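Same chain as my last thread, 361 residues:
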Amino acid sequence: MALPRQHHLLLFLVAMLVSFAHSTVPEDPLRLFHEGSPKDKNFIMQSTNVFNFKSFGKLGHISSSLKMVNVNDYGARGDGKSDDTLAFKKAWEVACSYAGAVFVVPQKNYLLKPITFSGPCKSNIAVQISGTLVASDNPSDYSEDRTHWLMFDSVQKLSVNGGGTIDGNGNIWWQNSCKKNPKLPCKKAPTALTFYQCNYLTVEDLTIKNGQQMHVSFEESKNVIASGLTVTAPEDSPNTDGIHITNTQNIQISNTVIGTGDDCISIESGTMNVLATKITCGPGHGIRYKSAVQIRNVLYENIKGTSASDVGVQFECSEKFPCKGIVLQNVELEREDGEGAKASCNSVQLSYRGDVNPQCP
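reply #2:
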């Protein structure tokens, strides 16, 4: 049964850029495939025990010995109007300096200018967001760095969760985009949430919405779990990729809903060992990777839904860097009008498992 028509495309991506048998991975990778998935010798299958710090960020399981750092105790007002950036900076400095701390954002609305939460910290750290973080919509506040709003830089063993909301407040940026108004010059806009060089990272149970441009970006990180995320923006919002991954190894994305104005999940070079499962995409442009990047060992599994265009499955790989080891397993996509969708495939080595429709001609 197809999902509602407003979900233009459902795609589950498992992209694994792996070494051959003689190679090794610097960190213990994810268990990338479950029982019933391809058993090709080039697929890396090891334990996710490397993520045993995962429950650290769950507030209900946190030891009483940990330091609770509440942003309100450092001057944050949480009225959605006052600038709480300085209070967040002060609270982060304290939390980062403790051997085990929880950075607590209560159920209020916090207005923030661009802010970087820098590491390395003294120990594991959890960020518990129960409230709403709202971005300043004044472009002059981004004069020093126009490309980031919230950024975690070089923070290891970090857990970010809490059921709260991160609101990029992107409307002013969309209005001034050259894609919206071709008469305007093309300028960069901030990514709402960036994780840069963060290893052993979990990001769970959050809503990220109305990104100024990209919503969530994982960059140069290793051993990442992202789960239970809701990423949304209007269908006509320009360049608002849901999740962007670049030069990152061993990342698992699951149980996530992404509906934006651009790519659902975009992957760039240097990324290796990606598992994306139970992802709902749409509206948006689905899953995309650049044809100049060599892609190997990709599993699309248990996909059902509708496509806004005639083409429901598209692999446009380059002759120089063909896509290899692509597997479609139990895929059923149709057009919004209920008619059968088509597949477009170039320079790709495909195999099918179970019921797959459409298939490449």
